[in-house]
Amino acid sequence: MRDSYIGKRIKGGGYAIKGAFLLIKHEHSIQVQIGVSIIVTIAGFYFDISKIEWIFQIIAMGMVLCAEGINSAIEEIADFVHPDFHSKIGYIKDVAAGAVLFAALTAVIIAGFIYLPYIFPNYEW
Fold first, then answer.
1. Which of 43, 54, 95, 114 is most buried, judging by how many CB atoms fall within 10 Å of its CB?
2. Span 28-119 CATH architecture
């Protein structure tokens, strides 16, 4: 069964779960984003947001966590390949961090669309 299609998928899933736990345990940025995700989830229950708002919120949270995870992997690879400062490695790391910024800004905009009407209900949106 280990070499079967299903066996390989199960083994791959195990690696993914291990990777997720490693991210949570060792990466400060992921820990911060999980904290933000918990706060926003609590806000979702508090404001009783709609199903479509939940969908957008979950997509936004997942997008940021994925971007942070990929950024962490890129940084680890870059540091492994070239531990000393190198302008190309710096460029690669900066671009990866920029992708996280795009994801985070998008998530903030989505949160604004969801929560501002609940926070300021009398404002004309």
1. 114
2. Orthogonal Bundle (1.10)
